[in-house]
């Protein structure tokens, strides 16, 4: 079916021109971004072609959306559900993607630039170190030529005896300096005393240490660089001569690093406004710059900085960065720089190539601006599409307003039915506190009809004190714009009731507060049950707290609860202190701890249902007591635990030991008494036998006497 345009041609023309301008700008910005991101790619054309194709496709889709916006068409109402939220989420995802892509592009550009400059500085460092090493090896080879030459050693043998050979030696040294490019040379005796110097300068005071090292090793030694008495930089090469007789003298070749070494460091192979190469070494707690930095006016070997200062050289010496890692910090000018450092082989020197961060990031900022503009354009185009689609949604919303109003009326009727059938009191008040809505449950509580309650206030229904409380609570909810939930006790015709009331401000369609709504649930029976339960708990707690036995709850060998009786048994004043200490190990003697822990573990794991044992406890005053332990496994908040009681049986054990001791003593005394009685019985029997024998003997003696008396003449 043909659709007629409802907009004038001028608006259509402006829309098309605006869209065309945005599309062309997007093409240009995207091309610029591809050029920046793929600057090092040898074949960027395929990616550019793919980019242009995607851009054309996006333009076609966007133009189609714009054209649909210009046309009036009916949109089915059932397509509205959730459309706005989905569209908003889609725009959020698209905007997030654009922002992430733009940020990632900028970060990639920053990392790429840093990697390029790091590679350049690394190449410069490698080049400079190789130049320094080659120069030092060349100077040392010159010194080795003197050391290994028999001519110089033979001429020195006649130093004190033949003036002609002495002069010849000095002439050869002067000629050697000119040929090899040394500034001067000196001759020292084996004790290190100066015999001759072409520069007429005394040797450095610290030279003796290096001379001793040369004597020990018989190898070329290097001293410096340092400033001589004329404030000139000097680097000495010490060559001990190979003499056959006596100690070896020394020839010192004085080289001026400013002639070749320092200029070589100043030469930068890559053009840069801030690039600089610094050669330095550590001397105690200070860093000495050996050459003159590019932006420093101080001569070589005069700039010293404390190693404690957070500069780039200090960070390099701290060894906190890996080999060839990019370092960030401040240089001697207090400028932010980035650099790479290396140690010069076979020396105590270090070399750092650095560059100001401002120079590195200046070129990045320009690219970041182009990338940001491309991202903003993409966001603008996405936002424009989102706005047009939202306008279409608003048209659909306007078309469905009447249907929504009808649905609201049906919802009001449904709410009225729900409220009338609810067991909770549901009501609403106006700003003057008069009831404008009340359900049948609320009217039933106050024993009045709904028609009688409408238009009344709380003062017309409840006692003055309770009405004032209700009005005050409603005023707080309205003034603060919050929903309050609290318990309210009211006197009703059938007695006192407790309600759990929820109240909050009532808003109109414009968000203005027009009154107060409330829902009250009768919780009288629940409150009465809570009172009964609380009284029962208080009685149980009183029994537990006043018990002489120690009552406990143990979970994983830690005390979760103990009563005061438990604390008194172990001589603690406060049960909470024991609970906070947790572990029960400090209440058990050392010899019983393993056994007690094992029994408690078995009880908690359910391997044994009840546990009953004895152990030796330790009171707070370290006194040992005898404890009888009863326990049973229970469930404590979803975890296995042990509950039970303990008894202090120290006195009972003492009484039992006393009774046992007295019983043993009584048994011993009974045994002794029995032995004594047995002995007495045996004695009596012996006495009886003795008496019998005496009696028998006496009888026999009488008979014999009679016989004797009868035979007398």
UniProtKB/TrEMBL annotation:
<keyword id="KW-0418">Kinase</keyword>
<feature type="transmembrane region" description="Helical">
    <location>
        <begin position="12"/>
        <end position="29"/>
    </location>
</feature>
<keyword id="KW-0472">Membrane</keyword>
<dbReference type="Pfam" id="PF13188">
    <property type="entry name" value="PAS_8"/>
</dbReference>
<dbReference type="InterPro" id="IPR000700">
    <property type="entry name" value="PAS-assoc_C"/>
</dbReference>
<keyword id="KW-0175">Coiled coil</keyword>
<keyword id="KW-0808">Transferase</keyword>
<keyword id="KW-0597">Phosphoprotein</keyword>
<keyword id="KW-0812">Transmembrane</keyword>
<dbReference type="InterPro" id="IPR013656">
    <property type="entry name" value="PAS_4"/>
</dbReference>
<dbReference type="InterPro" id="IPR035965">
    <property type="entry name" value="PAS-like_dom_sf"/>
</dbReference>
<feature type="transmembrane region" description="Helical">
    <location>
        <begin position="49"/>
        <end position="67"/>
    </location>
</feature>
<feature type="coiled-coil region">
    <location>
        <begin position="652"/>
        <end position="679"/>
    </location>
</feature>
<dbReference type="InterPro" id="IPR001610">
    <property type="entry name" value="PAC"/>
</dbReference>
<feature type="transmembrane region" description="Helical">
    <location>
        <begin position="87"/>
        <end position="108"/>
    </location>
</feature>
<dbReference type="Pfam" id="PF08448">
    <property type="entry name" value="PAS_4"/>
</dbReference>
<feature type="domain" description="PAS">
    <location>
        <begin position="411"/>
        <end position="481"/>
    </location>
</feature>
<feature type="domain" description="PAC">
    <location>
        <begin position="484"/>
        <end position="535"/>
    </location>
</feature>
<protein>
    <recommendedName>
        <fullName>histidine kinase</fullName>
        <ecNumber>2.7.13.3</ecNumber>
    </recommendedName>
</protein>
<keyword id="KW-1133">Transmembrane helix</keyword>
<dbReference type="InterPro" id="IPR052162">
    <property type="entry name" value="Sensor_kinase/Photoreceptor"/>
</dbReference>
<dbReference type="InterPro" id="IPR000014">
    <property type="entry name" value="PAS"/>
</dbReference>
